[in-house]
Amino acid sequence: MAVVPQEPILQFEALMEEADESLKKTFQNVHQGYPQETLTRFLKARDGNVAKAHKMLLDCLKWRVENEIDEILAKPIVPTELYKDIRDSQLIGLSGYTHEGLPVFAIGVGLSSYNKASDHYYTQSHIQLNEYRDRLILPAATKKHGKHIRKCIKILDMTGLKRSSLDNLKLMRSISSIDDLNYPEITHTYYIVNSPLIFSACWRIVKPLLQERTRNKIKVLSGCGEDELLKIMHHRALPHFCHKRSSSSLQKSPENCYSLDHPFHQQMYSYMKQQQQSSATQPEREGSVHVTVPEGVDEDIEEALESQLEQIKDIKVSDSSRA
Fold it and tell me: For the stretch 104-120, what's the b/e string if a residue is b when 16 or more beta carbons lie within 10 angstroms of its beta carbon?
């Protein structure tokens, strides 16, 4: 639903007045000074149903309290070498902003191996990125542009996607569940670029299973997507994998926004270190934060993907045996 009427927002607001103080406290970190806009996000995620949106938000706030999400930015992953390994295997970074001021996050779906740490570390890292985005990046963009900015753009690079990516499906489902249930309606559009044949085959299966609201946010672009993306952002905001060779050869190579050496990750990691030092939490120590993963992702998509990938495998085996 594009626009939420004022009446259900006011009903939702009245229900939230009855919430426990601990839930109201963590809600402040969620709404960042824009409570009605946040209620609207949860209403959109539940198609305007106030009762369902209320339950969703209460479950989200309880999850935050139980897992100490408000303190997660004061718990940097250490040592630094381990955090670097995570950045090298869970590929995500901030490449810039659109003309409208929306943050542009680049995600290396095909080349993320998730093989240098436990799932707990990758989940912790993902939530920290979400919280840093919501508590610092989006408020800073709002202040800079003089208007409320509560959404971002995500560009998904499918380079390197292959059947073995299915090995990480359980972790990706967990991360997706965390996002869907606790950070709804923050991504404005998902742009998919550099799609290999295997993605096209899987997309034909997955697309009909997605909710219309989600399906409408996904745009599959041709090639690296540079021409289309330049309509909404400056060239310098493009992730490194969206540059055509002919155009990038005319200037210095774009920065790899996945790397821990990139300014975004340097600033974020420094911020978490500072928060840890100034907080009342325990001194810096190794070990991941264990976060409860909420239930709620439709398993039909996973089963369909597995079936499709098995068919692709069988076709390749058959082709190789005839060669």
Answer: bbbbbbbbbebeebebe
Question: Rounded CA gap, 151 and 94, in Å?
Answer: 13
Distance of CA 219 to the CA centre of its chain: 16
Q: Among candidates 161, 151, 218, which has minimal Cα distance to 184?
A: 151
Query: 190 near 156, Cβ under 8 Å?
Result: yes
Residues found in the chain: 323
Residues 33 and 43: their CA atoms lie apart, in Å, by 18
For residue 99, the one-letter residue type is: H
Q: Which helix (H) or strand (E) holds 52?
A: helix 50-66
Q: Are 96 and 90 in contact (CB under 8 A)?
A: no
Q: How far apart are CA 236 and CA 189, in angstroms?
A: 19
- pLDDT score, position 320: 39
Span between the terminal Cα atoms of the chain, in Å = 52
Which tokens in the block code for residue 251? 């200037």
Mean confidence (pLDDT) of the chain: 88
Residues 236 and 210: their CA atoms lie apart, in Å, by 33
Per-residue pLDDT for 304 more than 60?
A: no
Q: 189 phi and psi, to 5 degrees?
A: -150, 140
Cα distance between residue 73 and residue 131, in whole Å: 7
3-state DSSP percent of the chain in helix, strand and coil, to 5: 55, 10, 35
Q: Provide the token pair at 219.
A: 């745009």
